[in-house]
Amino acid sequence: MAITGILRVGLIQFRVLDFEQSLVHYRDRIGLNEVGKIDEDRIMLKGYDEFDHHSVVLRRADRPGLDFIAFKADSREKVQDVLRRTREEFGYTIEELNDQPGYGTIYLVNVSTGHKVGVYSDVALAEKTPMIHNPHIWDEQPRGFGATHFDHALLYGPNAAETVRWFTDVMGLAITEELQNAERTGNICTWLSASTRGHDVAVLEFPEPGKLHHVSFHLQTWDDVGRAADIMARYGITIDAGPMRHGITRGQTIYFFDPSGNRNETFAGGYEFFPDNPRRYWDAERAGEGVFYYNKALNSTFLSVYS
Ligand SMILES: [Fe+2]
Fold this sequence. Notes:
This protein is an alpha/beta fold and 307 residues long. The chain has helices at residues 19-29, 76-90, 160-169, 222-235, 287-291, and strands spanning 6-16, 33-39, 42-46, 56-60, 65-73, 94-97, 106-110, 116-120, 149-157, 174-180, 187-193, 201-205, 211-218, 239-245, 251-257, 263-269, 280-282.
């Protein structure tokens, strides 16, 4: 196996205010498949092209926002190595989570930005995986936007440089791109990849801890992004920005909101990253172009609306 250690971001749990509207949004519009309930207050979902048991959990609560994101490791040894080095080198507290169906223990690390970032190795395949024997491109025709998988999240929080260092030194992720601050003493935002994706997670320096800027779902083509925009317009989904392209990662994108106020993104295209690629970096005064490549200016909600 050429990709070893941490393989990808594989699971996210975040909060929604209501199940009925959330299911219309995530299942019928974005096109995720409903896997089942965990208890009365959590619903599991997955993209049709994902093999693992589930990748998205919506938890019903009185405010939106992130519970945790979690990364899949290739072995229990890698998980134990991450836990040992996290304790020894960073002193972060670690919680054990044992209530996700299909999953073994997920170890949640409380990183410096105020987020819980999990690591796990044991997870069962979904009941309905992509086909593997003389496989069709999909088994059931995808609904809505036809999102293939949960792709990445952008986290907002303080002490981002330390969390980025934990991601690189302990988890083994690579920095694919960075947006440097005006003084060039650090980064406003850093994009990190565990594999050939442009990023699995991005971390932005922000005063409030534990915040979620967006959860992103992968679409296959620019045409799919356009079709997603048509569906958003037809069904009154609030679009924040786009359709457009990012300069950073080159992803083709729309930012939009779920009915609870969590920002979502569709992400298509973008380059393939290899760990021997030089790191791409952006100047602070080019941030608008990095994020919104076509109109070259951030919109007013980018830094002010999060969950
Ligand atoms: Fe994104």
